[in-house]
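Appendix B. Worked example

We walk through a single record from start to finish. Start with the input: the chain for C-type cytochrome, Nannocystis radixulma, length 510.
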Amino acid sequence: MRPAAALAILTLLPACSSDSPAASEHGGTSETGTSATGTSGPDTSTGEPTSGEDPEDLTCKHGPWESGKPIAMPELPTGDPAAGYTALLNEDYVSCGIPWELFGFAEDVLGVEEPLPGRTGKNAEVGHAWNVVSLEDGSELVVSNCLQCHAGYFNGELIVGLGKASADFTTSLSDFAEPLPDLPEINQANASFNKFKARAAALGPYSTMMTIGANPAVMFAIVLLSHRDPVTLAWNDEPLYELSTELVLPADPPPWWRVGKKASNFANGMSRRDHRGTMVLASSLCTDSVEEAAPIVDYFADIQAYIASLEAPSYPFAIDEALAADGAEVFECNCAGCHGTYADDPKAESFPNLLIPIDVIGTDPSFARQAAEGGFYHHLRQWFNDSYYGMFSEVVTDDPTPGYTAPPLDGIWATAPYFHNGSVPSIALVLDSTARPTTWRRLDYDSTNFDEAALGWPWQPAMPWSDAPESERKFIYDTTLFGYGNGGHTFGDHLDDTERRALLEYLKTL
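Next comes the structure step. The output line below is what the pipeline stores for this chain.
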């Protein structure tokens, strides 16, 4: 993606928390070190049962869920899902963007995105990730919407709610924004563009990703709050808290269809209570006062309801039902304790909403530790809870412990790459930590090129990021870089190949 495209989707935030030039989607060693298994009681990692106990039975009884800390489901405001879908695709919750008159020129650089059916007026003329809004003075503005991050392709189909796994944030937004001249502020749309450009310049140094697919959602939120007064939400050109270009955290946008089951948002489970606060904050690129934020918070009750109403798509390829039935048994013993149970009737399903401590899950600890007490970004908790948004939402980063939440696995087959930082290209590798590559790259960014056996994107080994030509670095995922580690979650290592194949087949049914 060229720098202008990166600016256009700079609202890629965890609230609603582009494609690689390599191809159209239509058509190792971890820095975390050795991870714990998280088991208690008999040492199931060695397979040595206590006297008189069946080893297989022990596998079912013990697991990381024993160390998990449950998060209570919040009581959310009532919302209208249909109204939420309308608001999602029509409202201006970013509060700045590109004047309508200039958007056609921007598309020459950004590329033309696939529109969504059913949109009307000028919204029918723009791609799915843009909204056209009229301002008070009659000027028109094209603003980003949540689908910049949360509409991805699988098997050539655009799926609303699927994280965009090929977004390119490897060019600093500052590199594009700073050279652009300000527009004469003859109307509100031009003034809005000038603010849009300035905010991009502020975000740029602290949100540049190392590889295509890595998402700066967490960093966008941190940078935005670091520039704002928590009570008034007024913007300050200089950050009020220290930021770092060395501690840039990557993320992987989760699918929206998990939201209805989850008690918290963000990989570390830090968004608690009514999630509208974190959702609106993360979208608030240019929302600089409580007066501006309040009506957005109001209609986000509907957007929140819409997101929670989504269901995972069905696996589009053949499933070996007998093998999947065998895999269901493997899943029940080894996975259900953390990831819940699944059934044709949703009322028969269960989900435990567990926060798994860092030393148990063992995945890259950078996000959880840097956000927790003593971490470089620990100020985000106090800022948020003291802010306007803290009146109805809450951020909790280390109570009772820093860790990561075990997500529901509905539609897991569609959501490669895996882990909270997108460091593992397939579920087969999630289930076998010994086979994970230290450095890798996707073969292409064609969403129809899917590995049905491994459940993920086809990949190949790559040279270290630092050794690659500069033009090639953006395609390389190097797990030795800060925040990009692929260690941990070793809970499938004890399975044999037959069990893994059966489990992968079962996951296709979710």
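Two observations about the output. DSSP finds 17 helices and 13 strands in the chain. The two ends are 33 Å apart (CA to CA).
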